[in-house]
Design goal:
The chain is mainly β. The chain folds into 2 domains: 144 residues, Translation factors (Elongation Factor Tu (Ef-tu), domain 3, Beta Barrel); 50 residues, no CATH class. Helix content is 8%, strand content 40%. The strands form 3 sheets. It has a 6-stranded antiparallel barrel. Strands 5-4-3-6 form a 4-stranded antiparallel beta sheet. Strand 1 and strand 2 form a beta hairpin. The longest helix is centred in the N-terminal third of the chain and has 7 residues.
């Protein structure tokens, strides 16, 4: 059985809990519908997986048309590992109905790219002194190495550099509500990336 789906982040909003009336921040995700476009088996490929197609592509090149055949014109193709391919067929539809309120899920996306950032923003350094004549060291990293021994900067030293635009997985988020008729999933809390960003949603291991 397929335990995941491809989605797109729509944004964040708030909902009221029915019993307590508590306001919670939720992320709205357009999840599916997806189509199984290929099955991979342990005998043939070395592992079991289902490749899902999501989103409407404007056009396809010749290899993509040959791969998808008449299944559709999908913009995104992603694989989900399976324990067993039995019961899964090419052309099968996958939608939000696999989730229900209270389920725990893992959401994978690409975090927002923030460009070049200093050590205060990138690594949460405290910065230098704000007094005693320190007029240009407020956001500097401080010493980055020793002198005679080792006489170089250690590999992996935290310094300024590119921040964000990384693959990030947030685990064990709770599903607040699922609307299969609208392909809509409301998830408690924030998920990686900006609005319209691609997301992979999987049921958490050991989740409900």
């Amino acid at each position: 059985m397929i335990q995941g789906i491809i989605g797109k982040k729509l944004g964040m909003t708030q909902v009221f809990k029915e019993k307590s009336g508590e306001v919670v921040g939720v992320t709205a995700i357009e999840a599916g519908p997806c189509t199984v476009v290929q099955l991979k088996t342990a005998d043939k490929d070395g592992y079991n997986a289902a490749q899902l197609g999501f989103g409407q592509a404007k056009k396809l090149n010749s290899p993509e048309r040959g791969h998808l055949k008449e299944l559709g014109q999908f913009r995104y193709l992603r694989e989900f590992r399976l324990d067993d391919v039995q019961g899964v067929e090419t052309g099968q539809k996958v939608d939000v109905s696999m989730f229900k309120a209270g389920d725990l899920i893992d959401v994978t996306g690409t975090s927002k790219g923030k460009g070049f950032a200093g050590v205060v923003k990138r690594h949460h350094f405290a910065g230098g002194l704000k007094t005693h004549g320190q007029s240009d060291r407020h956001r500097a990293p401080g010493a980055i190495g020793s002198t005679t021994s080792p006489g170089r900067v250690w590999k992996g030293t935290r310094m300024a550099g590119r921040l964000g635009d990384d693959r990030v997985t947030v685990r064990r988020l709770q599903v607040v509500e699922a609307y299969p008729e609208r392909n809509l999933l409301l998830v408690n809390g924030a998920v990686p990336g900006a609005a319209k960003g691609l997301l992979l949603i999987k049921k958490s291991v050991g989740g409900k």
